[in-house]
Amino acid sequence: MFRSEYADVTPVDLPIHDAVLARAAEFGSIPALIDGTDGTTLTYEQVDRFHRRVAAGLAGAGVRKGDVLALHSPNTIAFPLAFYAATRAGASVTTVHPLATAEEFAKQLKDCAARWIVTVSPLLETARRAAGLAGGVEEVFVCDSAPGHRSLIDMLASTAPEPAVDIDPAEDVAALPYSSGTTGVPKGVMLTHRQIATNLAQLQPSVTAGPGDRILAVLPFFHIYGLTALMNAPLRQGATVVVLPRFDLETFLAAIQNHRITGLYVAPPIVLALAKHPLIAEYDLSSLQHVISAAAPLDARLAAACAQRLGLPPVGQAYGMTELSPGTHVVPLDAMDGAPPGTVGKLIAGTEMRIVSLDDPGRDLGPGESGEILIRGPQVMKGYLGRPDATAAMIDEDGWLHTGDVGHVDEEGWLFVVDRVKELIKYKGFQVAPAELEALLLTHPGIADAAVIGVYDEDGNEVPHAFVVRRPTAPELTDGEVMLYVAERVAPYKRVRHVTFTDGVPRAASGKILRRELRTARHEEPS
Fold first, then answer.
1. Model-level pTM?
2. Considering only 34-43, 133-142, 174-183, 189-198, which range has the smallest mean pLDDT?
């Protein structure tokens, strides 16, 4: 068993809004949130006061403890206000990908029995369609303004009393992001107030921040990585968060330059751009002090190239998953120069790890031996919503969460993730479940069978590759038709990027798809 070298942390038994904003009065007039596109700024005092007023407005509209509120928005300075207001009103927040189709959104709404939606006017039509498809949604609010819909802006003028909700941090669910876990279709991950708040305390000794630090939030808040690293963690410590709604390289570089950003938390595709794109030379990025990459594996050579280009210490990595609130490992900011290339970091405070044999899961392995990574700690999720069997398959009786990732630890405790047991595809950090795409492909009248694996494109992104068996009635079905069929029905990041037609999908006797054989077959394809 491997243990963190940091001292254990006391579980944080506070609602997440109080855990994050406990020092808001102390930070007062320090900018908390800045819109990176138009400069609109909210101070810590305003974030604290505004989210309380919105909480009163939500409570006045009928939001109660135990309700689920779906937050459906790109990054804006209103996103944190909506999140903390909803939890203060007693709701659990399920975050929704802003590019989700109405059908995908409706599945999530129905699965978690959401009663409320908060969206933005450009996404309102999708939200309304999703609400209609799902049923059970009482009202759709907007962060900005739209005819016929109550706005969070209007709630700032609410004179209703602030809700006084009795929250049990250890049991009550604060966030309900959706994850595919190690396989299968997306499932609601129940993260309690205590789990999320304690994970912030666990991360703090390794990744310090404070007034004067400026973090650029370009990765989405709806993703647990963005929610933690770009919203909760910096706001808990008095840093300033500059918010961008999406990644556009020129806007991103201009924000670093103009707002004197000190820290970046990114995914590998952004590291690639920073390492290789010619535009980098046209901007002053000298304010940057560190870059941390997570959400997907980062090639050590690419990390080194990025650091050299920017004149910074090596790019650090972090590791975790939605089911772990999400952090378990990070390269500490004060150890970036000494960390071995390719490591995802060391165990954060209060976390334990085992590496177990893939052939004999009961056998623990030592340093230098690769096996499945198991994690235990206060950040382990409460479970999957309404799926006790899936929860039991993920977390064993002794509280160890089986990550499905394969890795090894060196003699100094640095973890290296080398492969995945699980079948999940990670496209630019977003989770794509092969089973979800396979189920969709099988609805095409010309497809008899299908399997999906992840393959790496020329930019190092893992993308979905479909193996398709044509029906005898559709001998002329083309790869373009297959890709278009999927693209019309899923969010852009889930699109199938390659298609191979085959005579059959290899399966085990149990019916499980033998994806390893498909990967081998793909490598044997003529180029």
1. 0.86
2. 174-183
Domains of the chain: which residue ranges? 2-406, 425-523
Residues 6+ apart with CB under 8 A from 460: 268, 269, 272, 299, 302
Greatest CA separation found in the chain?
A: 70
Question: Smallest Cα–Cα separation from 174: which of 85, 235, 243?
Answer: 85
**C-alpha 491: how far from its chain's center?**
15
Please give the Cα distance from 447 to 505 (Å, whole number). Answer: 12
- What pLDDT digit, counting tens, does each position of 58-71 carry? 999 999 999 999 99
- Distance between the two ends of the chain, CA-based, in angstroms? 45
Domain at 425-523, CATH from 3.90.550.10, 3.50.50.60, 3.30.300.30, 3.40.50.1100: 3.30.300.30
Chain center to CA of 116? 22
Q: Match domain 2-406 to its CATH number in 3.90.960.10, 3.40.50.12780, 3.40.190.10, 3.30.56.10.
A: 3.40.50.12780
Strand order in the sheet with 462-470: 447-456, 462-470, 498-501
d(CA 34, CA 259): 9
Phi, psi of 432 (to 5 degrees): -125, 115
Count of helix runs (H) and strand runs (E) in the chain: 17, 27
Residue 424, pLDDT score: 77
Given a contact cutoff of 8 angstroms between Cβ atoms, the answer to whether 464 and 432 are in contact is: yes
Which sign, positive or negative, has the C-alpha torsion 174, 177, 181, 183? positive
Residue 490: name the closest of 443, 448, 457 by CA. Answer: 443
What residues have CB less than 8 Å from 147, skipping those under 6 apart?
Answer: none
Give the per-residue pLDDT at 510. 46
CA 377, CA 472: separation in Å to the nearest integer? 53
pLDDT band per the 50, 70, 90 thresholds, residue 180: low
Q: Which stretch of 146-150, 233-237, 359-363, 410-414 has the lowest confidence by average pLDDT? A: 359-363
